[in-house]
Amino acid sequence: QLVESGGGSVQAGGSLRLSCAVSGYTYSSYCMGWFRQAPGKEREGVASACTGGGRTYYADSVKGRFTISLDHANYKLSLQMNSLKPEDTAMYYCRYGRKYDDGSWTWNYWGQGTQVTVS
Questions:
Q1: How far apart are CA 107 and CA 99, in angstroms?
Q2: First to last CA, the chain
């Protein structure tokens, strides 16, 4: 189970911080990420990070504005969103999955989503 928090409404240029915590089954090596889906659009990856090093991923549309932080030991993920734009308005979903020895991973769990609205 993934517990998300931190969504809300903000004016353009403002900031929000999303948080996600894993509750229940845990993997020794894992990845966590944020995805979003706006009305009428496909779901897209926003940012992700994995344990054991490796590159942190950001969508081009959020680079320089969003920062992802992974608390490895406590299975918690946060997303600091600054300089928000109306086009960032979407339902944001946390994802969690197992990371394998070859560096690949699978997304095994989804959160319920938290709404972010930028006006």
A1: 9
A2: 31
Can you tell me the mean pLDDT for 103-112? 92
For residues 91 and 18, is the Cβ–Cβ distance under 8 A?
no
Beta bridge partner(s), residue 36: 44, 92
* pLDDT recorded at residue 21: 96
Burial of 41-76, coded b for 16+ CB within 10 Å and e otherwise, reads: eeeeebbbbbbeeeeeebeeebeeebebebeeeebe
Q: Which residue has the tokens 């006006």?
A: 119
Q: Find out whether 23 and 5 touch, Cβ atoms under 8 Å.
A: no
* pLDDT one-digit tens code per residue, 50-101: 998 767 999 999 999 999 999 999 999 999 999 999 999 999 999 999 999 8
